[in-house]
């Protein structure tokens, strides 16, 4: 039943063992994501949003159910999945150029051609002139752009975005939302964003999965209309439909 979807969670549950006993993070999650889609997972703290990304990336296995990518069960980390986190995790002792090549080095995929590709991405982000700088010499927004280049340099099919804008000031966050959305659309990437920010989810997504907690379950799925999907995130906030969908998500989050 999952054959026509790039990503599928099939009745997935995850339980962690803690010193206080079992803690069920998510329960009976079934969802699909198609190639080229940008979807968000939204919900309160503790509803298992990041747990879903970790299982999709192969960092750990579900307790029950299965996760599929390209019809293959995910049992270990995959090269076709890139991960961008709230912290940029740039290595302080490496230059920006050396940082963006790190993933390629780890995958034994660093060649003159892949290095040129990474530097072209850095140029697209407006940061080529900083290639010989070190992370401490860049602002938070610039560092997150570098982290995006490092993620894209390995040419993943799927990008997992775990609250990558939450540590930034509001203006930088809005600019980076536009940059990320435009870049992923042009490069035809599939993305899953985990966020607490309703505005961000509505502005960036094709669909939003709203989760409830204790344990995490899908409360509803909200389809975002073309009127909001076609503009870049900043401009979509001025579209008349935006407030309606913001309120719709808000209501779902506050429904017991």
Automatic annotation (TrEMBL):
Protein's UniProt keywords contain Transmembrane helix: no
Pfam families named among the record's database cross-references: ABC_tran (PF00005)
Top-level division of the source organism's lineage: Bacteria
GO molecular function: ATP binding; ATP hydrolysis activity
Keywords: ATP-binding, Nucleotide-binding, Transport
Gene3D superfamilies: P-loop containing nucleotide triphosphate hydrolases
Presence of keyword Nucleotidyltransferase: no
Record-linked SUPFAM superfamilies: P-loop containing nucleoside triphosphate hydrolases (SSF52540)
Annotated ABC transporter domain residues: 7-238
PANTHER family: ABC TRANSPORTER ATP-BINDING PROTEIN, TAURINE IMPORT ATP-BINDING PROTEIN-RELATED
Full protein name: Spermidine/putrescine ABC transporter ATP-binding protein
Taxonomic classification: Bacteria, Bacillati, Bacillota, Bacilli, Bacillales
């Amino acid at each position: 039943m999952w054959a026509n979807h790039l990503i599928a969670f099939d009745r997935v549950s995850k339980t962690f063992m803690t010193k206080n006993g079992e803690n069920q993070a998510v329960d009976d999650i079934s969802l699909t994501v198609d190639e080229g889609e940008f979807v968000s997972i939204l919900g309160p703290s503790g509803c298992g949003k990041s747990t879903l990304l970790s299982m999709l990336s192969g960092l750990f296995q579900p307790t029950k159910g299965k996760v599929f990518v390209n019809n293959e069960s995910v049992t270990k980390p995959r090269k076709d999945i890139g991960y961008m986190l709230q912290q940029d995790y740039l290595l302080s002792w490496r230059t920006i150029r050396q940082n963006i090549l790190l993933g390629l080095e780890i995958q034994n995929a660093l060649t003159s051609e892949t290095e040129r590709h990474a530097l072209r991405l850095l140029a697209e982000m407006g940061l080529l002139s900083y290639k010989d700088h070190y992370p401490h010499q860049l602002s938070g927004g610039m560092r997150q752009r570098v982290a995006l280049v490092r993620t894209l340099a390995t040419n993943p099919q799927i990008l997992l975005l775990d609250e990558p804008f939450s540590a930034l000031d509001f203006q930088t966050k809005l600019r980076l939302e536009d940059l990320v959305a435009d870049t992923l659309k042009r490069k035809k990437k599939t993305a899953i964003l985990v966020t607490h920010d309703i505005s961000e989810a509505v502005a960036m997504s094709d669909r939003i999965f709203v989760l409830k907690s204790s344990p995490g379950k899908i409360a509803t799925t909200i389809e975002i209309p073309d009127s909001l999907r076609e503009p870049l995130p900043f401009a979509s906030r001025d579209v008349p439909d935006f407030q309606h969908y913001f309120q719709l998500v808000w209501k779902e989050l506050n429904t017991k």
